[in-house]
Amino acid sequence: MNKLARAMVGAAIATVSVAGTLVTASTSSAATWDHVWSGDGVRVYIKENNDYISVCDTSGNGHSAALVTYKYTITVSSGKGTCQHRSASQGSKYNLPEKQNIEVSYAGTGGRSDTYYWKQSGFYNDH
């Protein structure tokens, strides 16, 4: 895992924040995440317990990183190396249903609607 990836994993784990606040850097292990996905300018970390989703901007391309679920959107507009997160503890809007497949789309290209820029992944939420 490269230095940037370690910093971003640490950033997402190390800071407990209120919805929409900036996550700051620290160090930690990727082993604590159930799912980690990357796309152009974006990295997504998911921990099924408490439906914790962190989205990080990994590129200085001048575009926001974003993730969309069927319930909500997370946008990171604060620049390269920064993250935003949501979890079930922040309210029912962020509580994903248990025992169901959860699909997410993510991109680091400013939320362009052209599907070429978006990646899709999913997981079975069993926690």
Q: Which residue ranges are poorly predicted, with pLDDT under 50 across at least 5 consecutive positions?
A: 1-29
Give the averaged pLDDT, no decimals. Answer: 78
Given the C-alpha coordinates, what overall shape results? Answer: globular
Radius of gyration: 13 Å
- Sketch the major β-sheet: 4 strands, antiparallel
By helix and strand content, what is the structural category?
Answer: mainly beta
Termini separation comes to 26 Å
Query: What's the count of strands?
Result: 8
What is the H-and-E element order?
HEEEEEEEE
Please report which band the strand proportion falls in: under 5%, 5-15%, 15-25%, 25-35%, 35-45% or over 45%: 25-35%
Q: Please estimate the helix content.
A: under 10%
Domain count: the total is 1
Count up the helices.
Answer: 1
Q: Which strands sit side by side, in order, in the main sheet?
A: 1-2-3-6
What does this structure look like?
The longest helix has 12 residues, at 3-14. The model is unreliable at 1-29 (pLDDT under 50). With 127 residues, this protein is mainly beta. The protein has one domain (3-125). β4 and β5 form a beta hairpin. It has 1 helix and 8 strands, in the order αββββββββ. The two termini are 26 Å apart. Helices cover 9% and strands 35% of the residues. It has a 4-stranded antiparallel sheet with strand order 1-2-3-6, covered by helices on one side.
